[in-house]
Specification:
Chain lengths: ~400, ~190
């Protein structure tokens, strides 16, 4: 398949087509809608076979339908944003607890009120404890590649967990960009049909899911999910490496490092804003700054070991959070700081709250942050730990 | 060198589609491209902004365009209400759909561009499409004035975007505008 200029949402839709998804159940919400519209178009045009589209009356029902479909062994997909994802919350626990590898694209959108349709990571990060894997895409290419890898990783017999692929509202979802798609045969070879461990329609081997877990058993069920999440790190790296070997785009690192080798200051963050940050790193380096970027691709499972290796070698980490946990701090900052506490890696870490509700983070903003970090490192102490960077004063 | 283009139109005139078609045209010539609307809540008639970036290498930057090389104005009435030259680079260019003269347009611009390009895209669109939708004709002027893309690539991108007769007519409008565009070095 040649390269094509498509939006992030169309990249997601094409990936579901190439992954030969069998069931889609979804409810429209801006800015996710054009994903499921495109999938509906594939069906209307007869471009896909064996794809059942289940129209539902809410996101809660969408996820419920996905759970049922996935339990029969079908490769299942849905997509949503913000309030829609929040409405699914109960069912997200259900999908993970029942060990069903549903794949969902969440188009990051700020939570209301006030109403906003723009980019913000708090909707997906609020689902961090549901047992879903989470991958944050930087660009449309990563949306496409991410959806394909998500099925392979989630459906792996050692994982069997649902996967959320996350893209930015408008900045990716509605931005047209060059995407290098794969040939159908290449995808078929990389991603064979799902082999479910159990299927509700396997009438010779009946079983039940979602039964009562008494205090004597529930604990072990939880441990198994925790273990599968740990195991998922290995599978993510294997699949990411295989993807790189086959198609030239390597995803074996759960944290993508950009020019961090000799960097004193590293900007760490997730999603589309890291594209601008990488551009800024090149510009700042040409101006003499020793800076690099660390893009956290996978937030769940969290790549603790990769973070430690990075933290050992740098003086300062500026964590850029396009999200906030009220009463605490940026969520990536909170996690990264916590992970390093019991290690000997103690870089200076500062939290910059950026881009909430679609506020632009520009190259010049990154330069200002670099200057602030430089001062902090020279002084050896933080001016403040949490910086509401864009605040109008 | 990356080239950044900002489109100003009104909801319903197709500024967003113009940004996308221009990107597609440059892509057909082997360039890397990015096209996106200003992420507002679109309403018919309200001012709309859309952007295109074109480069020889992959485009990583994900911000809006604050310092465009080229500004394209699809609706001349916007000159009275929007500062279309805001942030325009030194040596930058403004392309306006208008039946007015160079002097009349310059009077309305807050900043004098290095090049001013005028085309009466509305009349062309009315003649060929029967509708005052100027997004495809204005792209003929963009091709002529900037040389960023060839007119042939614009025509091809238009035909990819609109199928059949609609594509043919829109491509014709772009070609017609290409022929009639006047570029002033200032």
């Amino acid at each position: 398949m040649p390269k094509k200029v498509i939006s992030g949402n169309y990249a997601a839709a094409y990936a579901t087509k190439h992954a030969r998804v069998e069931v889609v159940a979804a409810y429209p919400i801006t800015p996710q809608t054009s994903i499921i519209e495109k999938i509906a178009e594939f069906i209307a045009n007869g471009e896909v076979e064996n794809l059942e589209y289940v129209p539902v009356e809410s996101e809660h029902s969408a996820m419920a339908a996905c759970i049922g479909a996935s339990a029969t062994g079908a490769r299942t997909f849905t997509a949503t944003s913000a309030q829609g994802l929040a409405l699914m919350h109960e069912m997200l626990h259900w999908a993970a607890g029942a060990r069903l590898p549903v794949v969902m694209v969440d188009v990051n959108r700020a939570m209301a009120p006030p109403w906003s349709v723009w980019d913000d990571q708090t909707d997906s990060l609020a689902q961090r404890d549901t047992g879903w894997l989470q991958f944050y895409a930087e660009n449309n290419q990563e949306v496409y590649d991410g959806v394909l890898m998500a099925f392979k990783i989630g459906e792996h017999e050692k994982v069997n967990l649902p996967v959320m692929i996350i893209e930015s509202a408008f900045i990716l979802s509605h931005t047209y960009d060059v995407v290098d798609m794969l040939e159908q045969e290449e995808v078929d070879e990389f991603l064979p049909p799902r082999k479910p461990l159990y299927s509700l329609t396997d009438f010779d081997n009946p079983f039940s899911i979602g039964a009562l877990g008494t205090p004597a058993d529930y604990y072990e069920f939880r441990y198994k999910i925790a273990k599968a999440m740990e195991e998922a790190k290995k599978i993510i790296k294997e699949v990411g490496k295989e993807f790189g070997e086959k198609f030239g785009r390597d995803y074996s690192q759960m944290i993508e490092l950009y020019k961090t080798d000799d960097a004193d200051i590293v900007f760490m963050g997730m999603g589309s804003l890291m594209g601008t940050v990488k551009e800024a790193v090149d510009i700042l380096r040409s101006e003499g700054y020793k800076v690099g970027a660390a893009k956290v691709r996978w937030f769940r499972p969290f790549p603790r070991e990769e973070l430690y290796e990075l933290a050992k070698s740098v003086q300062g980490i500026a964590v850029l959070d396009r999200n906030f946990s009220f009463g605490q701090e940026g969520i990536l900052f909170n996690e990264a700081k916590g992970i390093l506490y019991n290690t000997d890696a103690k870089p200076i870490m500062k939290n910059y709250i950026v881009g909430l509700g679609g506020r632009d983070l520009t190259v010049n903003d990154v330069r200002k942050i670099a200057n602030n970090m430089k001062k902090i490192i020279e002084k050896g102490e933080l001016d403040k730990e949490i910086d509401w960077y864009h605040l109008k004063r | 060198m990356m080239i950044e283009i900002r489109f100003h139109g009104r909801g319903g005139q197709g500024a967003v589609t113009a940004a996308n078609i221009l990107a597609e045209g440059a892509f057909l010539e082997g360039k890397y491209v990015q096209a996106f609307p200003f992420f507002g809540v679109e309403r018919r008639g309200a001012p709309v902004t859309a952007f295109t970036r074109i480069d020889e290498k992959p485009i990583r930057i994900k911000t809006q365009i604050y310092e465009p090389d080229v500004v394209v104005v699809l609706d001349p009435s916007l000159l009275d209400t929007v500062d279309v030259t805001a942030g325009l680079k030194e040596g930058g260019m403004v392309i306006v759909n208008t039946e007015k003269t160079k002097e009349e347009v310059l009077e309305k611009l807050k900043k004098k561009p290095a090049k001013l390009t005028l085309v009466d895209a509305t009349t062309i669109a009315l003649e060929i499409l029967g509708l005052p939708i100027t997004n495809t004709s204005i792209l003929g002027a963009v091709a002529k004035a900037t040389g960023i893309v060839k007119i042939e690539s614009v025509e091809e991108a238009i035909k990819e975007t609109f199928s059949g007769e609609l594509g043919e007519k829109n491509a014709k409008a772009a070609r017609e505008a290409f022929e009639k565009t006047v570029v002033y070095e200032l």
